Amino acid sequence: MEEASVVVDVVQSLRLDDRADRHLRSPDRLRIITFYQGQVSLLRRLLGSRGLGGVSVATVDSSQGCEADVVVVSCVRSNGRSTGFLTDDRRLNVALTRARH
Question: Which residues form the (+)RNA virus helicase C-terminal domain (predicted)?
Fold first, then answer.
């Protein structure tokens, strides 16, 4: 939950900071990508509780072919023993190449 809170803090800063590009307030300009569906649900709940429910949150797999101006990648792991999806080069490539700029 701590990592998810930090991700939401970053998104909130990007969306609400007067110095940030005002276009980031548009839902298709900012996207959060994570490797696990459970993290998608948690992030959506946390975003909603802060009035940021319109931010796009998706798994890496469902983000293939999608882009956004700014992408925040949540790299949480499902357990402490394995790096899981983070060692999958294809998924990592998708996660890191979804930002337009």
Answer: 1-101
Q: 71 and 14 in contact (C-beta within 8 Å)?
A: no
**CA distances to 58, 61, 76 from 1, in Å:** 17, 22, 9
Report pLDDT for 85: 59
Q: 95: Cβ–Cβ under 8 A, 6 or more apart, which residues? A: 33, 35, 60, 63, 71, 73
> What pTM was computed for the model?
0.82
What mean pLDDT, rounded, does the chain reach?
A: 83
Q: Domain 2-96 is in which class?
A: alpha beta
DSSP string, 26-53: STTTEEEEES-HHHHHHHHHHHHHTT-T
Distance (Å, whole) CA 50 – CA 10: 12
- Alpha-carbon distance of 64 to 71, in angstroms, equals 13
Q: How far apart are the first and last CA of the chain?
A: 29
Condensed to tens digits (0 to 9), the pLDDT of residues 45-55 reads: 999 999 988 89
